[in-house]
Amino acid sequence: MDAITGALLIGTWVSSLLYTAELHQAMYYYRHFERDNWRLKTLVWVAFFIDTVGLLDNYVRVYLYTITHAGDPTYLLNQNLSSPVSVFTNAAVAIVVQTFLVTRYWKFSHKHFIALFLCLLILAGFGGSFTCGIMVVLFPSYKDRFKLEIPVILWLVTEAVADLGIAAALLWEFLRTRSTSNETRNVLNGLVTVTLQTGTATAVVALAAVIGFLLNQESNICVGFTLCLGKTYMLSMLSNLNIRKSARVWNPSTSKAATSTTLSTSVAFAQPGTGMDTNLSGLYAHRTTTVHIESQQERHPGSITIKSSMHGPEHTTDIEMGPLSWRKEVEGLNFNAY
After folding, report:
1. CA dist list (Å): 178 to 30, 186, 194, 267
2. pLDDT tens for residues 185-208?
3. 228, burial (CB in 10 Å: exposed 0-12, middle 13-18, buried 19+)
4. Which residue intervals make up region (Disordered) (predicted)?
């Protein structure tokens, strides 16, 4: 009983806790990033809905085992119809999240062959999970679990390899990026941390599930781990989206709130013909530029405020400048272009 209903019950408890965190992250995302691309918001909503269906399916399965058919040895010898539903929902959430991350990597690096290889791993994992669901329907008895060995290994191992591969590819690109902006470096450091944590988390859960299956194929220990798999994937995607800094600023051209990061840079000028530093000669320039992390159709020029106190009272002049070249440093961090 411990290996059959106990593992399911514990897995449902843990998945419920993860779903609470997922719900909080989803609410934060829709509240703070309203101006994200509608396709990205729809993708998040679809994945969240599928994962919610999976959680409800887990509750139904546990209720049938522990309440409706409690003490029925014949029923406990077979997997009910909730089992393949759980497999299908986990597979759907996994392919959505992994596709999102691979697309993000491809847009950041434009490395087609690596992205294609990762997509093949994702498709292999999805095929293995779909095969598992079909075989559970055809062979519901626990004593027939050995027939699922190959598709289970294909499903969980390829998903783990794909997750680690995506994380490694993103980490490589993030670590190779060089920036002179402290703000951009902070964003990249945050992305490195989140990518490492979320990529390894999903891989660890998948590997734990396959190890549990190989140790005891007729128990639900492996199922207890897979109940948490969809929630882990959703937290992975939402964590990558919510790492952005959200602030509401006034955009003079659109008169709408936008998510932005403000960078300030002190610029030193030399006095013509002298080579002197402006801080010594009395000329000082301070530039404040707003960089929109989310995609915008127009790049608004920055402004330079020049203060001069060399001759008489201090004068202040505002000069509008064209697009700044360093904006390309954060162009690859666009989250909306999905």
Report:
1. 31, 12, 19, 20
2. 777 777 788 888 888 999 999 999
3. buried
4. 294-323
- Cα 157 from Cα 208, distance rounded (Å): 10
pLDDT single digits (tens) 121-131? 999 999 999 99
Q: Give which of 257, 334, 323, 244 is closest to 295, Cα–Cα.
A: 334
The predicted-structure confidence for 287-326, as pLDDT tens digits, reads as follows 333 333 343 344 444 444 444 444 445 444 443 434 433 3
Rounded to the nearest 5°, which phi and psi values hold at 263? -115, 135
Distance in angstroms (rounded) separating the CA atoms of residues 219 and 71:
17
The half-sphere exposure of 38 on its side-chain side, counting CA atoms within 13 A, is 0
Alpha helices in 65-181 (DSSP H): 73-76, 82-109, 112-138, 149-176
Q: What domains can you pick out in the chain, each with its CATH number?
A: 2-242 (1.20.1070), 249-331 (no CATH)
- Could you tell me the pLDDT band of residue 180, with boundaries at 50, 70 and 90? low
Helix-then-strand count for the chain, H and E = 11, 6
Place of tokens 């999976």: 54
